[in-house]
Amino acid sequence: MIKLAKQSTDPAENLEKEDLKEQTEKLVERLGELQDMLTAQKKYGVLVIFQGMDGSGKDGAARNVFKECHPSAIHATSFKKPTEEEFAHDFLWRVHKVTPPKGMIHIFNRSHYEDIIIQRVHKWIDEEKVNKRVAAINAFEELLTFDGNTIIFKFMLHISKEQQEIELKQRMEDPTKAWKHNAGDWKEREFWDDYMRCYEDAINRCNGVPWHIIPVDKRWYRDYCVAKIMVETLEKLDLEYPPFKPEE
């Protein structure tokens, strides 16, 4: 069983920052090559889920890791408070319609897991509904993987409470980050322990699609880990360019 309190938010001490940054650039370039084959072959779709507390770097991970991917074959969705239309449907309705078709990479900034994390933290749903939603999420992801040939990556961006405070303060002090400032983030920070408990439960009750716990206090290490996991996984697939077919 995964305990987030026992998972470091920092890289190992023996790692060289500049060396890993160089490796990351190569991995990011390779990811762009693999995406090109993925798009041409149209056999698999790829869903990338970024979950994490405010300030954990979900936007930065998406920007840095996928910078060599062609924009026409990548799409990002940020899940915020549901609209009235979304509230009128089941909780997975807004998620299923933006899952990736074959040949595409779709990135979720937050995801369907919000519905068993933030709603649980604030007790907007009871434990019976939590259990039913966990079962629905597991069934949903199983459907995507076996029926849609979707490769799912689930990244929990693991930040320390101390580093989160630094990140949130930067949004108040750095003009280039001020647009990200949200006073509500400080309020949510008061529920830190509840969030950790709900994240742990969601991670440990997932189906066969594993979560990757990514240390993010050092952003260069975050990018390296995400890129490495994606490249190593995609290289195990039978990705290739379709053969030339002369016109009949």
Q: How is the CATH topology named? A: Rossmann fold
Q: What is the helix tally?
A: 10
Q: In percent, how helical is the residue content?
A: 40-55%
Distance between the termini: 57 Å
Query: What is the CATH superfamily label?
Result: P-loop containing nucleotide triphosphate hydrolases
Number of DSSP strands? 5
Rg, please?
19 Å
Mean of residue pLDDT?
94
Derived structural class = alpha/beta
Q: Could you describe the largest sheet, including whether it forms a barrel?
A: 5 strands, parallel
Approximately what portion of the residues adopt beta-strand conformation? 5-15%
- The best one-word shape is globular
Residue windows where pLDDT falls under 50 for at least 5 positions: none
* Spatial strand order of the main sheet: 2-3-1-4-5
Helices and strands, in N-to-C order? HEHEHHEHHEHHHEH
Task: Walk me through this protein's architecture.
This protein is α/β, with parallel strands linked by helices. The chain has a single domain, classed as P-loop containing nucleotide triphosphate hydrolases (Rossmann fold), CATH 3.40.50. 46% of the residues lie in helices and 13% in strands. It has a five-stranded parallel β-sheet, sandwiched between helices. Helix 1 packs parallel to helix 10. The longest helix has 25 residues. It is globular and about 65 Å long. The chain starts with 16 loop residues before the first helix and ends in a 14-residue tail after the last helix.
